[in-house]
Design a protein that fits this description.
The protein is rod-shaped and about 130 Å long. The strands form 2 sheets. Strands 3-4-5-7-6 form a 5-stranded mixed beta sheet, covered by helices on one side. Strands 1-2 form a two-stranded antiparallel ribbon. The protein is built from 12 helices and 7 strands. Helix 2 runs antiparallel to helix 3, helix 4 runs antiparallel to helix 5 and helix 4 runs parallel beside helix 6. It starts with a helix and ends in a 5-residue tail after the last helix. By secondary structure, it is of the alpha+beta class.
């Protein structure tokens, strides 16, 4: 069974969706009110109006019908409807005594104008309408100029202007709040998408660093084992042991990295600290076991190195040494240096290999979409507010130099330009 409030709500929604029908209904109600009011005699003795003592003239009925009919178009032509109703009201005051309440239609039209225009227009049109109708009622009516009927014209037209302006201001306020809420929602969604993209990029960098390093070592040791399997089985066993250790380390680091994607309350989430310069010797030993001579010229592991900077320095060294092992050629040697200079930490990886800059991953991307080594290092360093340069050395070899601020900041990774991607020095 349909309740009364729900029926009213449904009717209200229907009228809101059909404004012309609403205006026609309003015009009909105003016409009924004006006709009923025209049967009232204002009362000469000060005892209030009396009904049934007078009947409206045919001319007054015609004016009321015309004024009510004009209200049907009040939304589409608000100014024209106000002019028509105001003119019909002034005509009623001039030619009829006592006048019929045609002014009701003018009050509705003036409210519509005030609610759909700006405040200066409302003031100008409202004062003009109030002045014309009040003067017409005072000058051409038989009652004294200070009678309550004449003052009522002034009051009702003034309240119509004020009410329309208040409704317009409230609509503007609600629209502004809605617009700010929608803009905030869009901004929140864009911020969420940006954070998701940053997190995906960070995880992709970590996965690339882990996989590229350990798979390169596994590949080298497996090649050594296959080469010496028949003639030197002891050396082959040693190489396979290194393969086992490298694969185990890769699995452990992958487990730690992928574990970051778990829910915060998952008991299986890893709690091991991220690798840093504290395990630099172990990292260097893995490359030495793979046949790459690496010398640590300087390794500043002093206290106070931020965790993000510590991890970035470790990953830069890891990726740079992986590139040396893969692209520097046979007989290459590498040198690692970590030096703290003021408020920055400088990481340098040098090699004397014969590989060209174009052969380094990230110097020039390959057609299959590979080559993200140097690009990943650069993004990792710039995300902390540092700078990275990579390029061939004079006389042969390659140089990777990163400057990391000790007070790391979180920012969006900068996309390297063409000059930076080809190893131009800064």
């Amino acid at each position: 069974m349909t309740t009364l409030p729900s029926g009213f709500a449904r009717a209200r929604r229907w009228l809101r969706d059909h404004p012309l029908a609403f205006d026609a209904t309003l015009a009909f109600c105003v016409l009924i009110a004006m006709i009923c009011g025209s049967f009232a005699d204002p009362g000469k003795g000060g005892h209030g109006p009396t009904f049934g003592t007078r009947t409206p003239e045919a001319f007054s009925v015609l004016l009321m019908v015309l004024a009510a009919s004009a209200l049907v178009l009040r939304r589409r032509h608000s100014m024209a409807v106000l002019a028509v109703t105001g003119g019909l009201t002034a005509t009623e005051y001039i030619f009829m005594d006592p006048p019929a309440p045609v002014v009701m239609s003018t009050v509705i039209a003036l409210y519509t104008v005030a609610s759909r225009t700006d405040r200066p227009t409302t003031w100008r049109v409202g004062l003009l309408t109030m002045g014309i109708l009040t003067m017409a009622a005072m000058v051409f009516g038989s009652t004294p100029w200070y009678s309550q009927e004449n003052l009522g014209v002034f009051a009702w037209t003034g309240m119509a202007s004020a009410a329309g302006d208040a409704v317009r201001s409230r609509r503007a306020f609600v629209d502004a709040i809605r617009e700010r809420a929608e803009r905030a929602e869009r901004t929140r969604e864009e911020e969420a998408r940006r954070r998701v993209a940053e997190e995906r990029l960070r995880i992709a960098r970590d996965l690339h660093d882990v996989v590229a390093h350990h798979i390169a070592l596994v590949n080298v040791q497996a090649g050594v084992a296959a080469h010496v399997m028949d003639k030197r089985p002891d050396q082959a066993k040693e190489a396979l042991a290194h393969v086992r250790d490298a694969s185990r380390s890769a699995l452990n680091e992958l487990r730690v990295t992928v574990g970051l994607l778990r829910q915060s309350g998952d008991p299986e989430a890893p709690t091991e600290p991220a690798p840093g310069l504290a395990v630099l010797d172990e990292l260097v030993d893995t490359f030495r076991n793979a046949g790459l001579p690496v010398e640590v010229a300087g390794a500043d592991r002093g206290p106070g190195l931020p965790a993000a900077v510590d991890l970035a320095a470790y990953r830069v060294i890891q990726e740079a040494l992986t590139n040396v092992r893969k692209h520097a050629g046979a007989g290459a040697r590498a040198e690692v240096s970590v030096v703290r200079v003021g408020t920055t930490a400088e990481i340098t990886v040098l090699d004397n290999g014969r590989g060209s800059a174009a052969g380094r991953p990230g110097a020039e991307s390959t057609p299959d979409g590979g080559g993200h080594g140097l690009l990943g290092m650069r993004e990792r360093v710039t995300a902390l507010g540092g700078a990275l340069t990579a390029g061939p050395r004079y006389g042969g070899g390659f140089r990777v130099h990163a400057i990391l601020p000790l007070e790391a900041r979180t920012g969006e990774p900068e996309k390297p330009g063409p000059a930076a991607a080809t190893g131009e020095r800064r």
